[in-house]
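Following up on my earlier thread - several people asked me to post the actual chain instead of describing it. Fair enough. Here it is, all 231 residues.
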Amino acid sequence: MLGRRPNELSGGQQQRTALARALVKDADLVLLDEPLANLDYKLREELRDELPKLFQDRGCTVVYATSEPTEALLLGGHTATMHEGRITQFGETKDVYRQPSDLRSAMVFSDPPINSAEVTKKGDAFHLNDHASWPAEGAKKNLRDGTYWIAIRPHFVTPANGNIHAVKVSGRVLVTELSGSESVIHFELGGHTWISQSHGIHAFNVGDSAEFDIDIAHGLLFGAENERVAA
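Reply from S.P.:
Thanks for posting it. Predicted structure:
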């Protein structure tokens, strides 16, 4: 691209050229603001794999800003989740993903969006609605009765398959997305839109009532101030 003027380059070519300029300077600090946003899908996937290798032995600090949680997970290292200009959590990427410190961090660092809803603890059980409840186990037994928030990633919500350990819920199908090897189903439950992500083809008609299994063992529980409780 050396013989071309900037306005003769496409958006993707400008982005790759800017990335090359940043790399060739061999700087101690490299700042990348969504460097793959203007690239086509295939090239973006290739560069996601290539970038960590390019920086592996350079001895520099790389700050990579992205709105896609998948990119952060693929790059590894350390992640800071942000909301309205403020850092909500910072740590090793895998720890921030698996152990969000508050509900906002869990919501920022999830794709598809994490499911969340209010639940009520009464005695030794949590209640999502009149038909869905589960026992309070482990450290959750010691929590005082009251209102909490439950957050569950979409891949732990699947079309009903006879799992006797899952919490059963019924919801009205809003959208079905089929990608060939995966199904993403949006459904309405208790006034909230929930998302199910599962392997295989699970076709539902919009407006149908469908049964889903929630693997509640992987649910994240948050208190009234959105802080993580009973980890």
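Residues 6-102 form a domain with the Rossmann fold fold (CATH 3.40.50.300). That should answer part of your original question.
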